[in-house]
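Standup notes
- DV: blocked on the single-chain target, sequence here:
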Amino acid sequence: MIDDLLQKIELSDKSGVAELIGTEIVSQGRAWPIHLSLYPVAQRVLNPPFINPHLPKMYRVCREFIPYLSEEDIPLLVRLEISEYTRRPKLEKVFPPAQTSSSGPFEDLEAAIREGKREKTAALMAAFQEQRGKAELARRLLLLGSGYLDQTLGHSLSCTAFILLEMMERPEQDSWPALVTLADYFCKGGFSSTPRLRNSALESEQALDHHLLRATTGRGIVNLHHTITRYAVERVRHLLSDAEYSHLISCWIDFLGGKDAASPAIEPSIKINDYPEFYRFFSKREERPVLASFAGLVPTEEGRKRLARYLVRAVCDSYQGNYDPHYLTGLGSALWVVNRHWNQASLALNALRQYLNYFFTHMIY
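- DV (later): unblocked, structure below
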């Protein structure tokens, strides 16, 4: 069944995919294994006219939702994923070289990117990974991408980060499809020169929180990416030295520009008894009552889990067959802020407001 599913997704055979998964995806415990099996094809899903690999990034972010969901919720998420991967064009298959080339310095990889040679770049990535390890390749690619945040709305770092995280967490999978996607992206974007590390001191937690409040301030796609980019930096922090982490944070702060921070007015809390009651607000795209329903949930761990489940479920239940991948990647970043900064209500609710505004404004019913 899985091989047939991957082939039909590859061919963008919507009716064939729908018929194939049928009730299989809602069978007890089957949905998440099906998601995991999508790895090879998910890495190659494109989102024209953008060159950014939004869908491979989305694939990894979906993993972040699982701790919040019940068994009955997961099929909705996976069905949404499969629909999105099926309807979009795919990067053509590139086969790995018959023999792994020897790994030279990372500068050879940068030179291949400058030449726009995707296959050569992917082969050099594979050789570097084999001889230096996945963590070292990831570290070098993250630093390389850090020099291009302004040009890419942060994607040169955020897409790269999540694709690498999934690749590292899936040792049973061949990493070649992910490497080809990254090689294709870096060649198309011209991300070929690693910037010199900035000698900036690591910001205090208070200062970082203020910058995050700035990031979560504002509406629209640019401001949403301010939050997504910080989310990505924190997810890959374990791969970086303190100096490298400080460098990425400094690049992110520059990406924010000069915008001010603004805190939302915290509405009086509305008690929501169950998901159907919540979805009545959500489906009407009523930002203020949705935020008010979350105000009482943020302070407790159980409340935050309920908040996350309601949001993921509502985004899935609103699906009509055509989604912007930022509906899921932006949701991941908002939930990250809530769970990390639950004790700062203005910051948590700012992130939720930013995400809800983007979703409600751009969602097509």
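- Follow-up: The chain has 20 helices and no strands.
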